């Protein structure tokens, strides 16, 4: 199909509204980046003289249940307090499953556009699956170079019935095999602030679970684009599978950006806004972004864990007592989520919505 790359309305309709995605642009024979995808210079990612962050050193989660528990717990806590990102190995998810995930992600996005477009937000046959391009493309100054499919978990039966066929079984297996690890990490972090969450409260704080598959097509001019703009995640913890291409960057305390390199068999874990709020700022939701590449199409598969929409979030009483002040107000997570999705990615500004007056 011939696409008029100069007419921005036609281009937007082709990519976003018709569901062809960024991949559809590449498949149409596009050889240069259209203007709607060109980022302002301040948002572009320079890879020359790039640095690698300390999260390159993975934490061995199998040691949590042995004589090295305190040492490993300390590593987790320190990473959550400083960078907000860390990589883990021996996490309980099989290497074979991780490889299948990457394969199934490529299989989903390799489908004809019409098979993916049935899951566009406006026409999706159910609320569990959403396919699209960029974050909120209608409001962004420049569109992100990313297609994605989101799969919301309610129960096994509905996942196997409604999630897309090419990836439903492997995505569900990834979610279910990761949740014990996620709860274990949360327990370690809560223990360090003197809190023991009851099972019901733990389940409510992670009652919203979603598996995404992200696809970053090969880009002819990666220096002009971004895969995902600067942001932090809104939930408790995010678990991320990277492929071998890489491109995930995290912001350091000094304002510099460093890449978290992909490690075979490892998973990336990062702190979300909810955990920063609960801990009264002790744990840092990590500001991060994703670059594009011209060496191949990249996939990543995150699991997002977040509270139930009806759950109230705010600094835990034990932490406020320790700190002497509540840095965030109590609010309904539904309200926080609505605010988060109402605006383009812009660093950690979403947290301002929860700050105490």
Automatic annotation (TrEMBL):
SUPFAM superfamilies: Clavaminate synthase-like (SSF51197). Keywords: Dioxygenase, Iron, Metal-binding, Oxidoreductase. Its cofactor is L-ascorbate. InterPro entries: DIOX_N, IPNS-like_FE2OG_OXY, IPNS-like_sf, Oxoglu/Fe-dep_dioxygenase_dom. GO terms for biological process: coumarin biosynthetic process. Residues 201-307 form the Fe2OG dioxygenase domain. PROSITE patterns: FE2OG_OXY. The keyword Oxidoreductase applies. One of its GO terms (molecular function) is dioxygenase activity. Belongs to the iron/ascorbate-dependent oxidoreductase family. This is Fe2OG dioxygenase domain-containing protein. It comes from Brassica carinata.
């Amino acid at each position: 199909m011939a696409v008029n790359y100069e007419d921005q309305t036609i281009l937007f309709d082709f990519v976003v509204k018709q569901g062809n995605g960024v991949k559809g642009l590449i498949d149409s024979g596009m050889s240069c980046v259209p203007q709607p995808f060109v980022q302002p210079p301040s948002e572009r990612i320079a890879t020359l003289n790039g640095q690698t962050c300390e999260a390159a050193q993975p934490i061995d989660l199998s040691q949590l249940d042995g004589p090295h528990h305190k040492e490993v717990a300390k590593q987790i806590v320190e990473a959550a307090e400083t960078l907000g990102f860390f990589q883990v190995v021996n996490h309980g998810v099989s290497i074979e499953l991780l490889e299948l995930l990457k394969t199934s992600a490529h299989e989903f996005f390799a489908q004809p556009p019409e098979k993916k477009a049935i899951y566009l937000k406006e026409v999706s046959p159910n609320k569990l699956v959403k396919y699209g391009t960029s974050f909120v493309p209608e409001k962004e100054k420049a569109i992100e170079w990313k297609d994605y499919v989101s799969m919301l978990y309610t129960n096994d039966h509905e996942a196997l019935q409604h999630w897309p066929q090419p990836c439903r079984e492997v995505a569900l297996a990834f979610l279910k095999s990761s949740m014990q690890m996620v709860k274990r990490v949360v327990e370690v972090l809560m223990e360090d602030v003197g809190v023991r969450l009851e099972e019901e409260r733990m389940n409510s704080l992670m009652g919203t679970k979603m598996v995404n598959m992200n696809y970053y097509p090969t880009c002819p001019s990666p220096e002009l684009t971004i895969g995902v703009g600067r942001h932090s995640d809104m939930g408790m913890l995010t678990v991320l599978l990277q492929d071998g291409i890489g491109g995930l960057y995290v912001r350091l305390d000094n304002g510099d950006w460093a890449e978290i390199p992909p490690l075979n068999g490892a998973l990336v874990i990062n702190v979300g806004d909810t955990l920063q709020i609960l801990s009264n700022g002790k744990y840092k939701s990590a500001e991060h972004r994703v670059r594009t590449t011209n060496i191949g199409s990249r996939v990543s598969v995150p699991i997002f864990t977040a509270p139930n929409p009806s759950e109230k979030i705010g600094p835990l009483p034990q932490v406020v007592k320790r700190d002497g002040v509540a840095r965030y107000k109590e609010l309904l997570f539904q309200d926080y989520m609505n605010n988060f999705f109402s605006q383009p990615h812009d660093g950690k500004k979403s947290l301002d919505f929860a700050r105490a007056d």
